[in-house]
Amino acid sequence: MSYIFNKTNLAIIIGVAIIFGLSANEIAQFVKKREAFARISYQNFTEQLQKTYISQEMCEQTSRHICIFETCDFIPAGKTYEEVCGENFEKGWKPTNEVIPEIYRNLLAIRLDIASVSRRGTLEITPRLNEITYTSVYGAGEPTTATKKITTNDGTRLVSKLVLYDFLGLARRIDQPVETNKRYTITLLTDPEQINDDSQDSSTISLTCDAASCPREIIDVKNDIIRLWGGLVAEES
User: Fold this and answer.
1) Domain of life here (predicted)?
2) Judgement on whether residues 216 and 167 belong to the same structural domain of the protein
3) d(CA 197, CA 217)
4) Tens of pLDDT along 198-210?
5) Cβ proximity of 94 and 55 under 8 Å
6) Domain range for residue 30?
7) Is the predicted pLDDT of residue 16 greater than 50, yes or no?
């Protein structure tokens, strides 16, 4: 595998040579060092994807990939453990090929809004604080608010589901509905200072759909958020 000679890296090498007036021998040494560094970086990255982790959170934070729990409990008759599971198999969380986009790694909040004719409720998850806050307003009355703790893994599992359901793609494809009796809105609030993806031009990504015609993926995420709160909310009763 070549680590150096692509257009981008070749341009960098030429630029460095021009700026510092490097000789041919110095350029060759620079290339060797850069190749060695690239090999080490690639090896470290590969090792991260092959490791087994004790938790989903640790696995996804380290590998930046969606992780699944792998086990190997069934050994057919006539087969050995090594034949079925692999010689060095370890039970635990392992990265898949599904990369977690940068925007999901820098979430400030995941918010669910439930709006009906007379009620409006909001469930907001703050991953960095491991908290979920429920705010409910009936008519023109005063809002009531309560907060409870959730686990880090609760937030990790929810983010994984948003990635696998391609929430960003759904948000781009679904048209905003007209005023209806009941609507669901899921919003992702991100830290704009931590986002380096030029294709993402907003720190807020939102999707609204009519309760009667929301995609099943959004209904599933909505139900998960309500479960994290611990049961029914007034707007769903």
Assistant:
1) Bacteria
2) yes
3) 25
4) 545 557 889 999 8
5) no
6) 1-50
7) yes
Alpha-helix runs per DSSP H in 114-180: 152-164, 167-173
Q: Cα(123)–Cα(146) distance, rounded to whole angstroms? A: 10
Count: domains in the chain: 3
171: left (phi over 0), alpha (psi -120 to 50) or beta: alpha
pLDDT tens sequence across 50-61: 688 888 888 888
pLDDT at 128 over 60: yes
Q: Show the tokens assigned to 32.
A: 């060797």
- pTM value is 0.66
**Quick one: 226 and 125 in the same domain?**
yes
Please, are residues 174 and 207 in contact by the beta-carbon 8 Å criterion? Answer: yes
Strand locations in 21-106, DSSP E?
65-70, 92-99
By DSSP bridging, strand 92-99 and strand 65-70 are: antiparallel
